[in-house]
Amino acid sequence: MSRYYSDPERENETYALPDVEVFRADAGELEWEGQEEPNEAGFYYWYCFPGCMPDSEPFGPHDTEEEAVEAMRDSQ
Q1: Residue-wise pLDDT tens digits, 14-54
Q2: What is the distance between the alpha carbons of residues 52 and 26, in angstroms, rounded to a whole number?
Q3: Which stretches within the chain are classed as H helix?
Q4: CB-neighbour burial class of residue 22 (10 A; exposed 0-12, middle 13-18, buried 19+)
C-alpha cells in the first residue's frame, strides 16, 4: 500500500500527512456498503490518513498505481 498527498504541494509542509492510500486488490476482495457486484481486480485508491480507517469507498479499478494516482488528482 502506497500513501500519497491528494494535493502534491502539501508534501513540503512540515506537519502535513499523506491523505490517500493506493493499493492493489484481487477480484472479489473488497466489500463496502452499497456494493452491488464484486470488485474487479486492479489498483484502487481511497482517502485515508496513516493509521486511520478509510474516509471513503475505494475508487477504481485502474490498470496501474500511476493511473490510480492520476485519477485521484484529476478528481480534485
Answers
A1: 999 999 999 999 999 999 988 999 999 999 999 999 999 99
A2: 22
A3: 65-74
A4: buried
Place of cell 491528494: 6
Amino acid code (one letter) for 58: P
CB-count burial class (<10 Å; 0-12, 13-18, 19+) for 67: middle
The residue assigned the cell 486511520 is: 52
Cα distance between residue 69 and residue 61, in whole Å: 12
- What residues pair up with 24 in beta bridges, in sequence order? 43
Domain encompassing residue 12:
2-74
**Cis omega (within 30 of 0) for bond into 61:** yes
* pLDDT value at residue 76: 80
Number of domains present in the structure of the chain: 1
Q: Which of 20, 62, 56 is nearest to 41 (CA)?
A: 62
